[in-house]
UniProtKB/TrEMBL annotation:
<dbReference type="GO" id="GO:0004803">
    <property type="term" value="F:transposase activity"/>
</dbReference>
<protein>
    <submittedName>
        <fullName>Transposase</fullName>
    </submittedName>
</protein>
<dbReference type="GO" id="GO:0006313">
    <property type="term" value="P:DNA transposition"/>
</dbReference>
<dbReference type="Pfam" id="PF01797">
    <property type="entry name" value="Y1_Tnp"/>
</dbReference>
<dbReference type="InterPro" id="IPR036515">
    <property type="entry name" value="Transposase_17_sf"/>
</dbReference>
<dbReference type="GO" id="GO:0003677">
    <property type="term" value="F:DNA binding"/>
</dbReference>
<dbReference type="InterPro" id="IPR002686">
    <property type="entry name" value="Transposase_17"/>
</dbReference>
<feature type="domain" description="Transposase IS200-like">
    <location>
        <begin position="9"/>
        <end position="125"/>
    </location>
</feature>
Length: 231
């Protein structure tokens, strides 16, 4: 069974990060963030990609995306988003050249165990960076949609639906889940899976993906995030 580089699979969520070239700032003014999100909202349906979570930081973006049967749609979406933002910034600054690193990083995510955990990891980026004290204070992430503060255009995964029987209950359960501190092991697993292009999931999930993709994927110690009735 051959070893694999980056794995992209249909109908599975993927945790994606793309950084500015040489870590340069990509978003400077409010309009920069608004433009990127407007493009993401427009293009996701055009390329058959579901958007479950996002966070736009100054020099990089985190996205939780799931392509449909045509896996090429995910790469096409990222390419088009990058090209549009590059043209916009170059025109604004009277320059030419690249804005982004040429290759985005991605990790296939185990839906039932890690989709909500990845959403939490993504939406807590501004808190970990000490830009805000709480995720609700940061306007450029999906958190406000997940808890009903902002109008929703995100796609809804069954994991989110399962949080409660009504929108209000789901919003409250998700708010509690995000406020609960993630374990160091969970955050490390998500971070390292993304950096190394591995899978975000448990051993059974790794075996499942190996069968589907026909490749050997490196294993590592893995745990499962908890979501109890009290969280």
């Amino acid at each position: 069974m051959p070893r694999v580089g980056r794995v992209i699979l249909p109908n599975y969520p993927h945790h994606i990060v793309q950084r500015g070239h040489n870590r340069q700032a990509v978003f400077v003014e409010q309009e920069d963030y608004e433009r990127y999100l407007s493009d993401l909202q427009e293009l996701k349906d055009a390329f058959g990609v579901k958007v479950y979570a996002y966070c736009l930081m100054t020099n990089h973006v985190h996205l939780l995306l799931a392509p449909d049967e045509s896996v090429a749609g995910l790469s096409q979406l990222m390419k088009t988003l990058s090209e549009r933002m590059t043209r916009y910034r170059n025109r604004l600054e009277g320059r030419s050249g690249t804005l982004w690193e040429c290759r985005f990083k991605s990790s296939v995510v185990q839906s039932d165990a890690y989709l909500l955990a990845c959403s939490r990891y993504i939406e807590l980026n501004p808190v970990r960076a000490k830009l805000v004290c709480h995720a609700a204070e940061y306007p450029w992430s999906s958190y406000t949609q997940h808890v009903g503060i902002a109008s929703r255009w995100l796609d809804v995964d069954p994991c989110f639906d399962a949080l409660g029987g009504s929108d209000e209950e789901r919003h409250e359960r998700y708010r509690g889940f995000l406020n609960q501190a993630a374990s160091d092991g969970e955050a490390q697993l998500i971070r390292e899976a993304l950096q190394r292009g591995q899978l975000t999931g448990n051993a059974r999930f790794v075996e499942e993906i190996e069968r589907i993709a026909g490749v050997r994927i490196e294993r590592r110690g893995q745990g499962r995030p908890r979501l109890t009735q009290e969280e």
